[in-house]
C-alpha cells in the first residue's frame, strides 16, 4: 500500500494531535499558528489525494484502522467525492479561522484563545471522520466530540446571550445524539454489524424476507430526526438562530458552513450505504425527507424575512439552505442527490463569507439591527461587496455558485416525479431576494450613503484581514463559472455508488 492510501487517516489524526500540542503549549500567538499550520497540512494532503486518485483512476478504497477485522476494527471508506468534500471543508475552515481572528481578539478572553483553537481542531477532525467513516458506532463517538467542540466555540464569548444559546444548543444536540445512539444500537441488534456494508447486506436479506420491518423503519425515522436536529432541519432548527446569532463571527461561519454539513454527509452515507435505495423506497421514507426539506426551504426563508438582526437573518437563511439539501435528497434520484451534494459546497463557501463579513459589519458599527445599516457601503465598501456577492449567490444570480446550484436543483426537479417542486424553488429564491436585496439597497443606494461618502469616513478593516473573505468571494464566483467538472465528479461518484456498493454514498 502506497503512502497516499494513508492520507485520509492523517487528515483526521493531524488535527487531533494538534489539539493535544496546543493544550501543552498554551501560548496565544503560537497556538494560532500551530492550528493554521495543521489545517494547511491537511489541505495539502487533500490536494495530493485528489491528484493521486485522478491520475491513478482510483474510484474508492478502504483503509482499515489498526488492521483489525470487524467487529473489532474500524474502517475509513474513501472515494473521490469524500476527498473533494474534505478538501473544500479544510479550505473553508482555514479561511473562517483567519477571517474571524479579529473577532476572536475582541470577543473572547485572551487566556481562552488556546481553548478555541483546540476546539477548532477537534471540530475539523470530527467532520473528517463523519466524511470518511465506514463504521456507525465511530460516527456516534465523533458526533459527541463534535457536539462538545461546537458548543465550546460558541460559549467562549461568555456573554449572557451566548451562554443561554449554548445551553439550548447543547440540550438539543444531546437529544439528537441520544436518538442517534438508540437508532444505531437497534440496527446493531438486528444485523450484528457495525460496519456499513456488512450491515447493508444484512438489511437487504431481512427486508427480502419481511423480517424486522418495523424496527428497520423506526431506526431510519429516528436517524432522520437525530440528523435533523443536528443539522437544523426544519422543524428541529430552533437552537440555530440563537447559537449562530450570538457566537463570534468565525464560530458562526464554522457552525453553519461545516458542522451542519458533516451531519448531512453522514446521513447520506447511512441512506445509501447502510440501507440502499431499494430498501429506502420500500420503507417509504423519501416523501418524509422531501416534505421536511420543502418546509425548511420555504419557512426558513419566511422566518429570515422577518428578522431584525443581521446574523439571525443569515442564520434563518441557513435553515432554508439546509431545506434545499434535504429536498434534493428527498427527490430520490441520482440528479437530486448530486444537486444536494453540490449545494453542500455552495452553502459552505457562501455562508462562511456572509457570517464573517456580517460579524465585521456589526463590530465596526456597534449595531446588530438591519434597519441601521443605511449607508454602510460608504464606510465598508469591500466588506459590503463581499456581502453582496454572498447574497446574490444565495438568491441564485449568475455567475455565482448559488446560480449553478439552483440550476442543478431545477434540472433534478424537472426530471423527477415531483415537477411541481420547482415552483417552490422559485418561491424560495424570491424570498431570498426579499431579505438580502434590501440590505444591499440600504448599504449602497440610501441617502445616508451619499452623505457618508462625502464625509470620507471609513471603518474598513486592513486588507490583510479582509483577504480571507475576498478569497471566499473569489471561490464563489470561480466555482460558479466552472461548476460543470465539479458537478460531473459528484454525479459520477453517485452513479458509481448506484452500481457498486464500495463507493462513497
Q: What does it look like?
A:
- The protein has 505 residues and is mainly α.
- The protein has a domain at 285-505.
- It has 22 helices and two strands.
- It has helices at 7-25, 28-55, 80-99, 101-107, 113-132, 136-155, 160-191, 196-208, 213-231, 240-246, 249-275, 277-283, 286-305, 310-330, 334-365, 376-379, 381-395, 401-414, 421-444, 447-455, 463-481, 483-499; strands at 60-65, 74-79.
- Strands 1-2 form a two-stranded antiparallel sheet.
- Helix 3 (80-99) packs antiparallel against helix 11 (249-275), helix 6 packs antiparallel against helix 7 and helix 13 packs parallel to helix 19.
- The model is unreliable at 500-505 (pLDDT under 50).
Mean pLDDT: 85
Helix share bin: over 70%
- Note the gap between the termini: 24 Å
SS field, number of helical segments: 22
- Which strand order does the major sheet show? 1-2
Give the CA-based shape. globular
Helix vs. strand class: mainly alpha
Secondary structure elements and their pairing?
Layout: H1 7-25, H2 28-55, E1 60-65, E2 74-79, H3 80-99, H4 101-107, H5 113-132, H6 136-155, H7 160-191, H8 196-208, H9 213-231, H10 240-246, H11 249-275, H12 277-283, H13 286-305, H14 310-330, H15 334-365, H16 376-379, H17 381-395, H18 401-414, H19 421-444, H20 447-455, H21 463-481, H22 483-499
Antiparallel strand pairs: 1-2
Helix pairs in contact: 1-2, 1-5, 2-3, 2-5, 3-5, 3-11, 3-15, 3-21, 5-6, 5-11, 6-7, 6-11, 7-8, 7-9, 7-10, 8-11, 9-11, 10-11, 10-14, 11-14, 11-15, 13-14, 13-19, 14-15, 14-19, 15-17, 15-18, 15-21, 15-22, 17-19, 17-21, 18-21
Amino acid at each position: 500500500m502506497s503512502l497516499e492510501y494513508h492520507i485520509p487517516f492523517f487528515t483526521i489524526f493531524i488535527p487531533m494531535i494538534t489539539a493535544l500540542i496546543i493544550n501543552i503549549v498554551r501560548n496565544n500567538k503560537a497556538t494560532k499558528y500551530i492550528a493554521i499550520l495543521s489545517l494547511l497540512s491537511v489541505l495539502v494532503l487533500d490536494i495530493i489525494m485528489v491528484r493521486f486518485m485522478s491520475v491513478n483512476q482510483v474510484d474508492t478504497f478502504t483503509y482499515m484502522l489498526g488492521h483489525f477485522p470487524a467487529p473489532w476494527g474500524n474502517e475509513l471508506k474513501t472515494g473521490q467525492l469524500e476527498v473533494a468534500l474534505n478538501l473544500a471543508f479544510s479550505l473553508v475552515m482555514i479561511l473562517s479561522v483567519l477571517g474571524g481572528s479579529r473577532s476572536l481578539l475582541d470577543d473572547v478572553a485572551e487566556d481562552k484563545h488556546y481553548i478555541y483553537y483546540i476546539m477548532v481542531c477537534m471540530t475539523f477532525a470530527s467532520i473528517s471522520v463523519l466524511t470518511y467513516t465506514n463504521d456507525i458506532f465511530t460516527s456516534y463517538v465523533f458526533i459527541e466530540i463534535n457536539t462538545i467542540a461546537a458548543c465550546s466555540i460558541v460559549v467562549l464569548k461568555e456573554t449572557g446571550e451566548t451562554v443561554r444559546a449554548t445551553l439550548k444548543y447543547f440540550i438539543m444536540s444531546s437529544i439528537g445524539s441520544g436518538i442517534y445512539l438508540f437508532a444505531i444500537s437497534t440496527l446493531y441488534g438486528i444485523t450484528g454489524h457495525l460496519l456499513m456494508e456488512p450491515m447493508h447486506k444484512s438489511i437487504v436479506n431481512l427486508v427480502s424476507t419481511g423480517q424486522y420491518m418495523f424496527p428497520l423503519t423506526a431506526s431510519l425515522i429516528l436517524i432522520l430526526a437525530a440528523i435533523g436536529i443536528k443539522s437544523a432541519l426544519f422543524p428541529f432548527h430552533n437552537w440555530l438562530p440563537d447559537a449562530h446569532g450570538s457566537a463570534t463571527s468565525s464560530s458562526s461561519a464554522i457552525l453553519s458552513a461545516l458542522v451542519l454539513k458533516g451531519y448531512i454527509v453522514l446521513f447520506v452515507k447511512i441512506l445509501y450505504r447502510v440501507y440502499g435505495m431499494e430498501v429506502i423506497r420500500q420503507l417509504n421514507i423519501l416523501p418524509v425527507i422531501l416534505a421536511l426539506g420543502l418546509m425548511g426551504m420555504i419557512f426558513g426563508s419566511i422566518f429570515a424575512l422577518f428578522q431584525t438582526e443581521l446574523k439571525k437573518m443569515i442564520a434563518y437563511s441557513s435553515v432554508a439552505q439546509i431545506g434545499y439539501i434535504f429536498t434534493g435528497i428527498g427527490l430520490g434520484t441520482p440528479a437530486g442527490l448530486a444537486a444536494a451534494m453540490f449545494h453542500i459546497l455552495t452553502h459552505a463557501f457562501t455562508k462562511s463569507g456572509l457570517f464573517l463579513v456580517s460579524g465585521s459589519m456589526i463590530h465596526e458599527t456597534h449595531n446588530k439591527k438591519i434597519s441601521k445599516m443605511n449607508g454602510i457601503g460608504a464606510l465598508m465598501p469591500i466588506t459590503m461587496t463581499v456581502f453582496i456577492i454572498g447574497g446574490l449567490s444565495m438568491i441564485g444570480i449568475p455567475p455565482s455558485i448559488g446560480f449553478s446550484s439552483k440550476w442543478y436543483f431545477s434540472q433534478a426537479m424537472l426530471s423527477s416525479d415531483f415537477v411541481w417542486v420547482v415552483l417552490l424553488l422559485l418561491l424560495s429564491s424570491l424570498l431570498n431576494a426579499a431579505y438580502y436585496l434590501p440590505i444591499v439597497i440600504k448599504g449602497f443606494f440610501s441617502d445616508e450613503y451619499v452623505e457618508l461618502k462625502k464625509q470620507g469616513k471609513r471603518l474598513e478593516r486592513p486588507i490583510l484581514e479582509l483577504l480571507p473573505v475576498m478569497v471566499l468571494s473569489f471561490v464563489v464566483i470561480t466555482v460558479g463559472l466552472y461548476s460543470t467538472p465539479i458537478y460531473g465528479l459528484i454525479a459520477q461518484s453517485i452513479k458509481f455508488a448506484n452500481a457498486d456498493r464500495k463507493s462513497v454514498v
